[in-house]
Amino acid sequence: MQYLRHPDEFSAMVRVYLAKKNPQSTSLSDDWKYCYDMLGKVSRSFAAVIQNLGDELRDSICVFYLVLRALDTIEDDTTLDMAIKIPWMENFGTAVMCPEEFTFDCGFGDERLLLQNFRRVLVCFHSLKKEYQEIILDITERMSSGMREFFGKRITTMDDYNLYCHYVAGLVGVGLSKMFATSRLEDASYANMDSIANSMGLFLQKVNIIRDYLEDYNDKRYFWPDEIWKQYATDFGDFTDVKNSQQVCRRFFCAHRGFCFVPRFFVFGLIFAFNLHDRGHDPHVSPADRDPLRAGHCRRSRRPRKTR
Fold first, then answer.
1. Considering the entire predicted model, what is its pTM?
2. Nearest to 200 by CA among 270, 302, 275
């Protein structure tokens, strides 16, 4: 019944579903087909969102996602010796610019396959416009540096926590914002929306950290700041006792205290989304109306796109 009251949302859902089922065109090269195939395997709903973008922006963000996923796979592999991991991450940006030097092999499942065949992604990277290549490389190197800064470092304060989230997610928002401006489908001001774009990334990352508490704890990865959770427990694993109602309540209040800035980040995310003009592959929008340069940057009133 809810879709009968909001038919625009139903049509949008169908378009996203079809885009996810039919992500490729017969005109794509084998390397681009590989990229979109891997995108669907290593991402969640984000892949479907990318499919709805225009060709130029879709290709650039697809490669952007895969490059950062490859970097994250190296950082996330707890079985990889630090003597190997750190040099790999230090040289990751250089390897992106020199595909013949990319010989990294780690991770598990589809992420491992992505790294093993990553030269195919880099072929597509080097086919992008120079402006997109520079954005991807800049964000990748900054993220790599930030990840390495937190190797062996415990997140003890809220400042530590926000900085870590900036490195692993806020920078993604910054990169996307600059890509939107570069595409000229959005206002040039998006190139300077670093603060709002960063807040959007922090919001998504903090929601994921709340959701993945148990999985991260089992992997001995602790992202909740000590100064918050230690007010509610003596051991970080105390919150795993779901049969203990007192511990469940403490976990809730701990999450609330530790993520009290989430509503503010959510508002910034809405501001970011409401200012978007382009509707991607919307058959009900004419090319002239889709292009803000031709439409005089006339903002249309509608619901913002939903993120993950």
1. 0.76
2. 270
